[in-house]
Every structure is written in structure tokens, then in C-alpha cells.
Design brief:
Radius of gyration: 23 Å
Oligomer: single chain
Distance between the termini: 66 Å
Strand content: 15-25%
Strand order of the largest sheet: 2-3-1-6-7
């Protein structure tokens, strides 16, 4: 009988240890998932912006696409966007871990890669799809973007024209 009680006690304690480990693993996964943020940068051709952003520590993923165009157009093609009548901007979705990549730094580095005074163009790329913009999700991101844009007025001889808007769509 003692052996049976001991055996049951060992089973229960092992089960609790496994349950604790499983719960700890789940909590760790949830914490990792909750520490991801996304912000969207439009800086002319999205390939260059994406390549640059991928190099930054704490950036966990990037994805190119088209943002903030006409709501009636779903999943636009490159050809549609290049017709200059969809309102979409070539955009990079930047996923980052805020514990490793500071939002203000990401925005500051973005401004170092563009000419914020150009309207509907970056370098040789011309058209509304090549406008510079920061598309945000949260009030914190909006404040950081607007603060950084205000600082750009001190650095450029003409006013920055980079658009700052809430992310409406991303395809």
C-alpha cells in the first residue's frame, strides 16, 4: 500500500512539473508574440527600404506591399499601382521587437534613407506610389513619427512633405 501511495505521489508530482513547464513555455510564447510591433514605411521603391530595415537589430521581419490606397481596390497589382490612380504607396511592413529596436531610432533611420522634401518621388522613381510616408498603428507611433518629422524641418532648407497617417490597408 505504501508503494502504491508513493507511486501515485510521484505520478502527480511529475504531472505538475510537466504542466508547469508547459504553462511556462506557453507564457514565454505569448510574451514573445506580444512584444512584436509593426510600423509601415513608404520611401520610394520598397526594395531599398526593405533591404535597409532588415539590417537593423531588433527588426524581426519585413514585408513589401502597397498601403493606404483606395479602399475599393483589394490586393492591387504592381501594374495597377503604377497607373498612378489607386492611391497606394509602395510600403514596407517592419515587424520589430520594441525591447531590442527603439521606435524612435527606426523612424530616425528611415528619414536618413529618404528625401522628405520630395513630393511623389524618391530619386529617379516618380509617381504617387513613390511618396514618402509613415503609416502607424498606435498613438505612440504617431507621436514618435510626428516628432521626428518636426525635427526634419531643422535639417532641410524646405519643408518636409512626408505623409504621416494611420495604417488603413496593406496588401
Amino acid at each position: 500500500m505504501k508503494h502504491l501511495i508513493l507511486f501515485i505521489a510521484l505520478l502527480v508530482s511529475n504531472g505538475l512539473a510537466i504542466a508547469r513547464t508547459t504553462m511556462s513555455d506557453q507564457l514565454s510564447k505569448t510574451t514573445r508574440m506580444n512584444t512584436q510591433s509593426e510600423i509601415y514605411f513608404a520611401g520610394g521603391c520598397f526594395w531599398g527600404t526593405e533591404h535597409f530595415m532588415k539590417q537593423i537589430d531588433g527588426v524581426t521581419n519585413t514585408r513589401v506591399g502597397y498601403a493606404n490606397g483606395k479602399m475599393s481596390i483589394k490586393n492591387p497589382t504592381y501594374e495597377q499601382v503604377c497607373n498612378d490612380n489607386t492611391g497606394f504607396a509602395e510600403t514596407v511592413e517592419v515587424s520589430y521587437d520594441p525591447r531590442q529596436a527603439d521606435l524612435k531610432l527606426l523612424i530616425e533611420l528611415f528619414f536618413k534613407t529618404i528625401d522628405p522634401t520630395s513630393i511623389n518621388r524618391q530619386g529617379n522613381d516618380i509617381g504617387t506610389q513613390y511618396r514618402s510616408a509613415i503609416f502607424y498603428h498606435s498613438a505612440e507611433q504617431e507621436t514618435a513619427a510626428r516628432t521626428a518629422l518636426a525635427k526634419q524641418t531643422e535639417l532641410w532648407p524646405s519643408l518636409p512633405l512626408t505623409d504621416i497617417a494611420k495604417t488603413a490597408t496593406f496588401w
